Structure formats: structure tokens, C-alpha cells
Amino acid sequence: MRRKQPGDAPASATEADLAQLSTAIAAGEDLGPFVRRAFACGRPEPLLASLRAAARDREAEIEELCRAHFHDFIRAVDDLRSLLADADALKGSLSASHAALLSSAAPLLASLESFLAARALAGNLSSALASSRRCVRLLALADRANAHLQAGNHNLYLALRAVDAIDRDLASGPEPLPLPTLRRMLLSLVPAVRAHAEREISREFSDWMVSIRAASRHLGQVAIGRSAAARQRQEELRSKHRPLEECITLDDDGVGDIDDFAAAAATADVADGAAAASFDLTPLYRAMHVHHTLELGERFKKYYLENRKLQLTSDFDVIAATPFLESHQVFFSQIAGFFIVEDRVFSTGGGLTSRADVDALWDSAVAKMVSVMEDNFSRMQTANHLLLITDYAALLSATMRRYGYPVGMLLDVLARHRDKYHDLLLADCRRQVVEALAADKFDQMLMRKEYEYSMNVLAFGIQSSDITPAFPYVAPFSCTVPDICRIVRSFIEDSVSFMAHGGGGDTYAAVKKYLGRILSEVVDASIQKLVDSGGGLSVSQAMQVAANMSVMERACEFFTGHAAQLCGVPLRAVERGRRDFPLRKSRDASEALLLRLLRSKVDEFMGQSDGVNWMADDPPAGGNEYANEVIIYLETLTSTAQQILPLPVLRRVLVAVLSHISERIVGLFLNDSVKRFNASAVTGIDTDLKMFEEFGESMSSLFVDSDQESAANEMKAALVEARQLVNLLMSNSPENFLNPVIREKSYNKLDYKKVAAISEKFRDSSESYFSTFGTRGARQNPKKKSLDTLIKRLREVS
Predict the structure, then answer these.
(1) What's the pLDDT at 769?
(2) pLDDT tier, 342 (very low <50, low <70, confident <90, very high otherwise)
(3) Cα-based torsion angle of the residue sequence 218, 223, 227, 228 in order, rounded to the nearest 10 degrees
(4) Which residue among 180, 185, 596, 747 is least enclosed by CB atoms within 10 Å?
(5) Which domain covers residue 52, as residue numbers?
(6) Which residue has the higher pLDDT, 151 or 264?
(7) CA 269 to CA 256: how far, in whole Å?
(8) Which residue numbers delimit the Exocyst complex component EXOC6/Sec15 N-terminal domain (predicted)?
(9) Chain centroid to CA 142
(10) Residue 730 sits in a domain of what CATH number?
């Protein structure tokens, strides 16, 4: 056997390769890998043999296929030859038909050529006519635009529409104009017309901006004036229906009142609408439409807003050259008119301005007005000036509120300066009250005519009776009372005006608070200052001041009712909340002054007691002289006082004077100038005291309407100290004073020390410095013994 070489491949491997080769040849795959591998192994012969065998198999298959399809091929060739013969026959037939067609179609072709030539000519003519009509239309549009331009600015919009039509025709035409000259002319004139329209409308808009600024001031004045008229009508309606307020209930038909107020408000709104319609916005609308046509709408909006901002800023400078008091109406009217115009532009401008833009302008205007008012209010020192500005600012607020603008910040400024306004008003009223008090001579006021009585008495409800007196009429008060009433009434009206139109809050509560301030801080303090200083007032003048205070008590009730009436508060509510008399300090001070002056006058008469003979042998007939003079003076004074002083005041004055007389009588006995006195002197003082007691009893008859018996007892009690002292001195048993029961019953007003001092001065008429030598061993007088016992015991107690 042959030894197997290392490089030989096994037989099974060769067979596998041949099988794969056969599969690849059958599949038509690439045989490159097999060839490379065969040559790489150095054994290509099997591969070549396999390839030759595959080639022979393929050739055998081809031969077999050709033998199978040979007859079909021969038949196909025969068919093709017969088809060629038919084609040659058809070709001949077609040539004959073509020749016949050419001979018959020659006239038709000539006619067709003539038709095509005519159609081309017709198309050229149609194109020429269309171009002519286009040129005529463009020239007509140009002529129309020229006519609109010559007609004025109110036709600019129509001219621009014609120019836009020309521009659209030139831009959207299927082909350019056949006339280049006309095209060049139109292309140059369209921008020129637009530029001219923009210049003209801008000039007209600028003129309108100047005119609308001047018209805004008048418009604001008219609108604010109508607000003032509406407010006046509402106040007149309130005053007309105010007398019915007390009797109207919820079941009453009060619809008429509401309708009246609604009608007043509606009238004001209609008037404002008419005022808003009175200015011309046509130039603004024209400028807006022209700029929209020029596609410059957004730029015009910005231009309009910027110019209006500049105008508003320049409106703020109205107050720069003149004082605010003189220019505040122009300032507020200009701003009101500005925003009335802006409201109309916003409503009818078609989006020219937005609500945000108008609100921004209003916010800047409010901030400026607030700043200006704060600055000027802080420097004002006159209440009337502050009220004038406040009232106009309140009218501005009412006007702008009807147009939907927020005015809360303006009203807040007015409310913040409420106290300052009333402080200035109080200072002004204080000056007037002081001047009125200084000018008054405090004599009873004489009224000669009925209108004077109505103006000075009925106007303030200070009449003591509803019956009209006879004239001439002497009033129980001086001219100060109606003067002060007028001052306070004016204060109330100014306060109500301020609070109702710009003060905010509860009007009546605030007015009542400030009414209390003027009565207490101004009227009460001024009268009290006058009384405390004395001012050289006589007794009659002081009595007149006291009488004035009683009248002022009725006037204070009128003030409260008047304030409530102006504020629309029912009087029954005011009566439920009535307070104490606010002038009680000055009333008490005036009564104290009167008493002080009366006491001084009594002291002046009592100073004449030096003429009293304290050691007289017989008591004076008819009392001492000083007592008669005091009685005459008091009777004269009382006859005047009972005409002007209220009975309670007169009663208090008389009681106090009699009490002072009692003290002065006791003081006579204690006077150091009186070294001794006897029973005759005591009897004379007893006579004087009886005269005063009779005077007090006669005066008690004046108080019939009150408690006459009580008044008599009160006046008698005022003299009780002097009476108890005289009774003690005239008693036969003075030592009974030492008995607690008797002292409490009969001598309870006497003081130990006073009794001791006076008792030591008391001597009988029979007693003298040397009488003891002549009466030694005689029986001692029981009264003298009792008096000595009293003196001794009182010394021990002391």
C-alpha cells in the first residue's frame, strides 16, 4: 500500500468539496473560493474534472432543450414572413390614402392659415383694448385722487383709497403697462400722494391736539359746574323733604323722594353726556383712519399716547406760575377735561387707546394731584381757602367717579386733612368770638323791627316764648349771643360742607365731635377767659354775662338740631342722644364772677359800718344805715335781674349774697376795731338782720313757679349764722350754748372760737370800767353771770 502523505486530504473531505462545488454551480454562486482552495491544496485536477463534467451536463441540457423547441421556432419564423407581407400591403394602402388626403386638404389648410392669422390679429386688438381700458381706469383713479386731494383733508381717506387701488393695479396686473411713461409717472406719484396725505393729516392732528387742550379746560369747568348744580339740586330736594322725615315710616310711600333723587342724578349724567358730546373728535378719527390706510396704525397709537402724556405733564405746570388758591380751579378743570376726552376716545376710538393706557395716565394724574394737595394743604393757614380747594376737589371727584375713574386716593387726602381744616376753622372762630366779646358792652339788646327779632332770635331758637313780642323789644341777652350763634352756625355749615363732600365717614358723628370742640374749646374757653380776667366788668355787665349763658343753653340745643338737620339725621335720634350743657364751665365762672362782684359791692356797703355806735344807750331806729343801703341796692339789682336772669340762677345768687351778708355781720362783731359793744348795738344788728330776712322772704315770692316755700327756707338758712349769733347775744341764758342738745337745736352754725371772742366784747349798758366801785355788794345780773360762765367755759375749752 501507498503511505499516506501529510499533505493529502482524506477522501471524505474531497467528496464533500465536490458536493459543495456541485451545489454552488447549480445555484449559480461564485466559484472563486473553491478554485482558490483547490490551487492552495495543490490538487486542481479534481476541480477541473468536476468543472468539465458540469460543462458537459449543461451542454447536454441545452441540446435537449433545443431539440424540444425547434419546431416552435420554425413556425414562428413562418409567421413572421407572412406578417412582413401583410405589412408591405398595408404600406401601399396607406401611401395611396395619404396622396388622396393631400389632394383634398390643400384648400382647408389655406383656410386654416387665414383663420389663425385673423385670430392672432384679434388677440392683439383685444390686448390693446384691455391695456387702453386699464390705462383709462388708472387715469380715472388718478383724477379721482387729485379731486379728493383738492377737496381738503376731510377727503384724504378717499384719495388714499384711490391711490391704493392704483398701487394694487400696478402690482397685481398680469403684465406691465404698455406705456412706460405712464407707469413711471404713477410709480413716482403714489408715494408722493401718500407722503402728502401723511403730512397734511399730521398737521391737522397737531392743530386738533392744540385745540382739544384749550377745549378740555372749558369742558372740565362745565362738567364740574354741572356736578355742583346736581349737588345743589340734591341738597334742595333734601331740604324740601326734610320736614317730612320725622313722619315717614317704612310703610309710607317714599318712592317719590327716591325718584326725585334719581332724577337729579340722571339729569347730571345726561348733562355730562351732552358735555362730552360737545367737543369734536372728527380730526382724531380721520387721522386714525388715514394712518391705518397708510399701514401706520401702531405708530400713530404710540404717537398719540406720547403726545397726550406730554400734554398731561404740561397741564400739571398750570399751578407753577400762580398760587394754588388762584389756579386750583384751572388745574382741576384741565385734568377733568383731559380725562373726559380720554374716556370718549377710549369708548369710540376703535382701539386707539386701551384701558391700561388710560388707567396709567389717571394714576399719574392722581399721584400729581395728591402731591400738590398735600404740599399746599400743609402750608395753608386759612380755613376758607382750604374749604374752597377741598370743595372743588370733591366736585372733581364726583365728576370723575361718574366716568368710572377711581377717586379713592383723592378722597383720602381730603379726609386726612379734616382735622387741620377744623383746627384752622376753630382758630378763625376763636378770633371772631374774642372780637365779639370785646365789642360787646353787655347791655340788653334792643330790637326795633320784626326782621331783627327773626334774624337774632328766631333764627337760633333762643326765644323764651312762641308769642311774637311787641316792638321795640328789649331782649334778655346782649348782642354777643346772636353773634356767637352766627359764628357757631357758620362753623356747623362749613363743617358739614367739608364732611359731606370730602371728609368721609359718618358725617353727623364727625360734625358733632367738632361742634363739641368749638363749644368747649372756643366759646366756653373764651367766655371763661373773659370772666376770669374780669375785664373791668361791672355788676350789671357780669349779670348780663350770666344771663347770656342761660340763653346759650337753648342755643346749644339749636346747634345740635341744626347739625343733625344738615346731616339728614332725624331729630328724634338727636333727642335720644342729647348731652350735658357744654358751656357749664363758663356758666359757673360767670355766676362766680357775678357773686364775686356782688360780694365786693356788699363789702363796700358793709365797710360803712364804722358809723355803728357799738356802745349806744338806745338802739338805732329803723336799723343801721349800711343795712338800708344794702337793702336798697339789692332791691334795685333784683328788679333788673329778674328780667334777664333765669329764676334758678337768681335764686342761687340771692342765697349766696345773703349768706355773705350773714358772714359779714358775724365779721362785724369780730372786727378788731370793735373793742366793746352793748345790748343796744345787738338790738340794732337784730333790726338789720330782720330787714335782710324780710328781703329774703319777699324775694321768695318770685319763685312761685318752682318751690316758693323751699326758696324762702333756703334764703332764711343763708342768714342762719348771723341769726343764731344775735339770738345768743340777746338770750337771757347765754350759757345754754354749752348744752349740747340746745346748741345742736339752736346754735349749730356757730363756732366756739367766734362765740368766745364775741362774748368777751359784750358788755351791758350799765357796765363801765369803774362801775364795780359803785355797785360793790350789789346783786349780779343773771344774764351777766350766765355770759361770764359761758366765757369762762369757752376759755377752758380753747
Answers:
(1) 38
(2) confident
(3) 10
(4) 180
(5) 32-64
(6) 151
(7) 20
(8) 51-224
(9) 60
(10) 1.10.357
